[in-house]
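Honest question from a wet-lab person: if I give you the sequences of every part of a complex, can you actually get the arrangement of the whole thing, not just the pieces? Trying it with mine:
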Amino acid sequence: MVEKKHLLTSVQMANFVADGFLRFDELVPEEINREVMRELDNRLINFGYEPQGQPLTNLWQDSQGIGKVIRMPEVEGIIQSLLGIDPLYDHHCPHQVGPGHLEGQVWHADAIIDTRQHFDIQLFYFPHDTPREMGGTMFLPGSHLRRIHETDIGRYQNFIGQVPVVCKAGTLFVGHHGIWHCAQPNKTDKLRYMFKIRLNPTVRQLKMWNTDDLEDERIGGILFRNHRWYGNDDRLEYANRIKFWRFLIGDPQFDVNYWLTRIENTPERRVLAGVG
Amino acid sequence: MPELRQKLLVLYSHTPDLNSHITAWALYDGTGKEHHTTGDCDTPPYKSVLDAMKQGWRVIQFPQLIPAYPGLELSTSYLRFEYILEQLEEI
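Yes, you can. This is the full assembly:
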């Protein structure tokens, strides 16, 4: 188990529900970033998948780079808060975008139409500085609950509110499996890396974070954050986030601004007309 | 006869109202003069579909308004208010 101080807060979890990802700037220390870069440059870790469905703790046990990253208490706290204990390794992929690669990857989600409330997470780890001209991954906040099939969204190019990852070395993004994203062009003369790992839960994802602030009055407002790119669908997004929050806290009555309570109100109590 | 090529502008609006503001967009240039890709611009090229029409773009496809399937009333997926516009340009 992870120490409580390393777990996410309810406010952070609400941000995950609203945005579909969380950002942790310069979380990984520089000496580990350098070792990860050495492992990548020298192919000291396997670029192909390891056997899938095994405990994450099995992976990279002797590695002083990526192995240390996934064993940092802060990273373990993030993983446990979102997935619970004993997560499984789904797959990993060291993404590389070559120098002078001017084509952006098409928008996609790493998911088929996935109807679960249970969710996987993906760690997007940037082991070196990533300025805008180097690309970074582009994320679309609030896109994770949309039921789409992988690159079926490939016709889109730009959205208001899209977020390019511009970050310093050691920055970690943690995304819901449904988040829409795409790799951006690399206009520099250097190879760009981003290390991605997908993880699965093995326990019910129920209040696995530090819930001391569960009644924080900001949570409702966070769940109703409007990212604007979905236009008039904003109300549907809020409804789906309330459902997601209900799932995470195990309270089927939770609501914000009476939104689901209203449409779930189908009274069956019978009274005779004129009887007071 | 001049040789013409098609430029396509795909606009996604806030509501089906052609005056409503643009929330997403894509441009495909069949003349080959311009190249667009994901994330290449943070500001929509026009405020609205109507604004684009005033600049010479012709609307060639309107989005259908499709009622939600029973049981999927709250489900979200692709952007619904997609307008496709064209310009024909000499090469």
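Two things worth pointing out. The interface with chain B takes residues 102-107, 138, 145-148, 152-153, 155-160, 162, 164, 182, 184-185, 228-233, 236-237, 239-240, 243 of chain A (CB under 8 Å). The longest strand of chain A covers residues 88-97.
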